[in-house]
Design a protein that fits this description.
Layout: E1 2-11, E2 18-28, E3 33-37, H1 44-51, E4 59-64, E5 67-68, H2 74-81, E6 84-88, H3 99-110, H4 114-127, H5 143-155, E7 161-165, H6 173-189, E8 193-198, H7 201-207, E9 210-215, E10 218-224, H8 225-230, H9 235-245, E11 267-275, H10 291-299, E12 302-313, E13 316-326, H11 329-341, E14 345-352
Helix pairs in contact: 3-4, 3-5, 4-5, 5-6, 10-11
Bound molecules: adenosine-5'-triphosphate and magnesium ion (MG).
The site of magnesium ion has 2 residues, from helix 1.
């Protein structure tokens, strides 16, 4: 649906040139929610604004729905942009217009007849559950409601693609969830392709099918959200994953004296991740495998479960278990091998006395 081929963007200025985007190649499939995550200044906004040509790339080609935007005249581009809606961090609503008139705005520009506009705006306000706020002004709305207006306006011309530039960054966690839920809902209902940029892993984890990680204008990692989340390769990606998946070691465990190797009388501290790999090739391990009792029986170790939880990556469950394994050196080594062979992701934290 969206294809970027060697897209580059350099900002030229007297103070110096900034290569905000280096040769970037991305393909976003029809109907998916594609996330782009990166730190501040990484080039996220530049990248997403190249997709609808709000920023004209200094090199490369942009294709949306089979059409090359980088080869179009201004007039052609205006038409093509009707296929691409966009929502923003600060909503960008017109303060002097009511909710109704904000959503009607792009339709007025298109020259749609008044009665048709009223009908369409009504539908859109129903979709975002704001019909009863039609006559309010933006200043009378909460952040979440403002973003709902932004979404309704972005969908007014029936776009095939929705671009979201940090649409939930100004919202509290609860409101963020409800906006993400709405985006998921319209993605499914309208088969809308969504590209969202964010610096929050929480957002990616909640709704993205695939994700790309951008750093200094370069895509450093890309793949299914599940894969990137459970097997991050790059340091930056690992840091992002940590923000939502950090292992909390309880204070009663003395980590000061922790060693990376076994010593007599030590206990192994390890984190196990049980993945329900869904459509992946490997055999599913499931979060319910009685692995702990198996290693106790087979290798005579003792296992102490410190904490555990089940979380979701979009719709796929994954479970984590923080455990202490006690036994002699060989029994622990055998247990670790057994756990790994069972396909459970094992992270050895260390040996404590
Ligand atoms: N109009 C501009 N003129 C000059 N430099 C710019 C312009 N817009 C962005 N830049 C620079 O390009 C780089 C990438 O900026 P961009 O806004 O794409 O980052 P971002 O990932 O969206 O950051 P944030 O998370 O803070 O929004 C930055 O170094 C920024 O200073
Ligand atoms: Mg930005």
């Amino acid at each position: 649906m969206i294809k970027l081929v060697n897209v580059e963007k350099t900002y030229f200025s007297k103070a110096g040139n900034i290569e905000a985007l280096k040769k970037t190649n991305i393909e976003v499939r029809q109907g998916e929610i594609f996330g782009i995550i990166g730190l501040s200044g990484a080039g996220k906004s530049t990248l997403i604004r190249c997709i609808n040509m709000l920023e004209v790339p200094t090199g490369g080609q942009v294709f949306v729905d089979g059409q090359e935007l980088t080869a179009m005249s201004e007039a052609q581009l205006r038409k093509a942009r009707q296929n691409i809606g966009m929502i923003f961090q600060h909503f960008n609503l017109l303060a002097s217009r009511t909710v109704f008139d904000n959503v009607a705005f792009p339709l007025e520009i298109q020259g749609m007849p008044k009665d048709k506009i009223a009908e369409r705006v009504g539908e859109l306000l129903d979709l975002v559950q704001l019909r009863d706020r039609a006559d309010y002004y933006p200043s009378q709305l909460s952040g979440g409601q403002k973003q709902r207006v932004g979404i309704a306006r972005a969908l007014a011309s029936n776009p095939k693609v929705l671009l979201s530039d940090e649409a939930t960054s100004a919202l509290d966690p609860q409101t963020t969830k409800s906006i993400l839920q709405l985006l998921r809902d319209i993605n499914k209902r309208l088969n809308l392709t969504i590209v969202m940029i964010t610096h929050q892993m929480e957002v990616v984890k909640e709704i993205c099918d695939r994700v790309a990680v951008i750093e200094n204008g370069v895509i450093i990692e890309e793949g299914s959200m599940y894969k990137v989340f459970t097997e991050p390769q790059e340091e930056t990606t690992k840091e992002f994953v940590k923000t939502v998946n950090d292992i909390k070691i309880p204070p009663m465990i003395d980590t000061e004296s922790m060693k990376q190797n076994y010593f007599p009388g030590s206990r192994l501290l390890a984190n196990l991740t049980f993945l329900d790999s869904g459509d992946r090739q490997e055999k599913s391990t499931g979060a319910d495998q009685p692995l702990v009792s198996a290693i106790i029986k087979r290798f005579g170790v003792d296992v102490n479960i410190i904490s555990g939880k089940v979380d979701y990556l979009k719709d796929l469950p994954y479970g984590t278990l923080l455990v202490e394994i006690m036994g002699d050196e060989k029994s622990i080594a055998d247990s670790l091998r057994y756990i790994r062979e069972a396909g459970v992701k094992l992270e050895v934290i260390g040996y404590v006395g």
